[in-house]
Amino acid sequence: MYLTETITAIATAVGESAIAIVRLSGDEALAIANYLFTGKDLTQVESHTIHYGHIMDPSTKQHIDEVLVSVFKAPKTFTTEDMVEINCHGGKMATERVLRLVLANGARLAQPGEFTKRAFLNGRIDLAQAEAVMDVIHAKTEDALQVAVGGVDGKVSTLISDLRGEILTTLANIEVNIDYPEYDDAVEMSHTILKPRLTTVQQELEQILRQAQTGKVIRDGIATAIVGRPNVGKSSLLNRLLQEERAIVTDIAGTTRDTVEGTLRLGHIILNLIDTAGIRETEDVVEAIGVEKSRQMIEQAQLTLVVLNNNEVLTDGDRELLALTAYKPRLVLINKMDLANQLDVEQLGLNNQEIIKISALEDWGLNQLEQKIQELFSLEDFTTAQLEQFVSNVRHIGLIEKASQSIRAALEAIELEMPIDLITVDIQDAWESLGEILGTEAKTDLIDELFSQFCLGK
Known about the structure:
Strand order of the largest sheet: 3-4-5-6-2-1-7
Number of domains: 2
CATH class of the largest domain: Alpha Beta
Shape: flat
Distance between the termini: 21 Å
Helix content: 40-55%
CATH topology of the largest domain: Rossmann fold
Number of helices: 15
Order of helices and strands: EEHEEEEHEHHHHHEHEEHEHEEHHHHH
Structural class: alpha/beta
Largest sheet: 7 strands, mixed
C-alpha cells in the first residue's frame, strides 16, 4: 500500500525565483497531473518529454499558472515509478496553489527524502548512493562535490560490493567444507589458505579507512580552534580570515568571553573556525567560563591555531598553551609581525614547519596557511577518479571500522589455531557490517531515520 500511494512536494526552494517545480511520483501521477493540465493528454505522450499548457482549478475553471510539464514514465525514472514535474513560475503563491490542487486531487504530501527513499526501496539505488545525494546538495567545495558524485554514481558502492564479494567467496568455501566434506573438488579451507585471503581483505579495509579520513575532512571541513592569551590578535585573525567583523576587537584584555564561530573556505579546504576566549587566570566569573570553554575546544578541535604575540616576550601562559596542544594537530601563528620583535622564536623549541609568521592587521603571511594545512592533513592534490572512491560518510566509516575489527579478530583466531567454523562467525560479522553500508542488512528504523534527514521534495 505504501509504495502505491502517489506523493508530491515542491522540489525547489520556496521563494521568489524564475522557476519552481512541483514533483509527483506514483501510480496516479500522470492521471492527477493530466486532470489539472490544459494542453496535451499527458497519459498519451512519450516518456521524457515536456509540454506547454496551464494548470487549471477544476472546480472554478480558473487558470492558476502557465506551466511546462515534464513526463517521465516508469521504469526509467528516479523512483522507477511514473513521475511528473510541473514547472511553475517561481512565486510562492502560484507554486503553493498548484501544490494544493495536486493534494486535493489524490496525492499526499511526501515525507522528507521520500522520493529518494522510493528509489532505494524500488532497487534503483543502494543506501550508500541515496545518502550521497544529500552530500551533493551540501557540498561546499569542488573536491567535496567530486567525493559526493562518486557516491551517487556508485563508485563507493562498487568498492564495498567487491570487498563483500571477496568475503562471501571465502565464506562459501568454508561452508562447502563443513556441510559437504565428501566433495573431492572443493578447496579445503585450512588456516594456511585462509590467512592470506583475510590479510588481503584487511589491507584493503585499512586503505579505505586511511583515505576515508581525508574524505571526511574534504566533506565536513576541519574543526579549527584559534587559541592564545588575551590580546594576541585571535579575534583580528578570525575577522581577517572571514573578511567580516564577526568578533569584537579592542585593546582591553578579556573582550572575547565566549566562543565566536564562522566557516571559511580556504582554497579546497573548509575551516570551521572557533575564536576562543583568551586563556588566563581571571576572577571574572563570566570570563572564567569562557576560558574553561576554550580549554574544552582545544580537546575537541581537529586543528588548533596557537596565536602568539611577536611584540611580547614568551610568557608562562604561552608555554602552557604550547604544552596543551603539543600532541594535537596544530600550527603556531606568530602575529603582529608589523610591530617590534620581542619574541625569541628559539625559545619555542618548535620546527619551522609548525610556525607561520603573520600580521592580521596588515593582512600578510596568511597565504601560507592553506599550504601548511594541506601538508598537515595530507590534503595533496587528488585525481577525480581517486576522489570519487573516497568514503566520507561517518556511518560508512564506522561500519568499515567494525568490519576491519571483525577481520582482525578472525586473523587473531587463526594465529591461535581455533577451529575454522568458529572463525567463520567473525568473517560473517564483517560481511554483514559492509552490507549495512549498502542497505542490504540495514533495519527499517535506520532507513527511516536516514531519510528523515533529507529535505522535502528530494
